[in-house]
Here is the input.
Amino acid sequence: MSENDRKRIVLSNRIGMVIAFGCLVLGLFLLLNGNLKGGGFFLAVECVCVFFILKSSYGFYKRAYPDDTTSFKIPKIYKRGLTINPNHPKGAIIWKCIFTFTVVFFLFGLFMFFIW
Here is the structure.
């Protein structure tokens, strides 16, 4: 993994986090004012942003540590600390659960937007 790939992933993650945070604030504002449709819409948009952030991070870690299936924790891309290794058997299950959780909240946001 080259330094340019790492910088591109870090930039896309930061942009995605800013958009997701903006959607969270707008969605909470709309929900607190009783507008469930608007809150559901911004929840769905936020989940899309989070999904793409997770997807890029997952792909990076999967390629950066392809042979490391023994360590459960690996160094983070752009912050200090450790994160879960997607190549570890338990780590792969945790990443899949996080993806599933994000998709469920996306569907809940769509349900709020279209049904409520």
Observations:
- The beta strands are 73-75, 82-84.
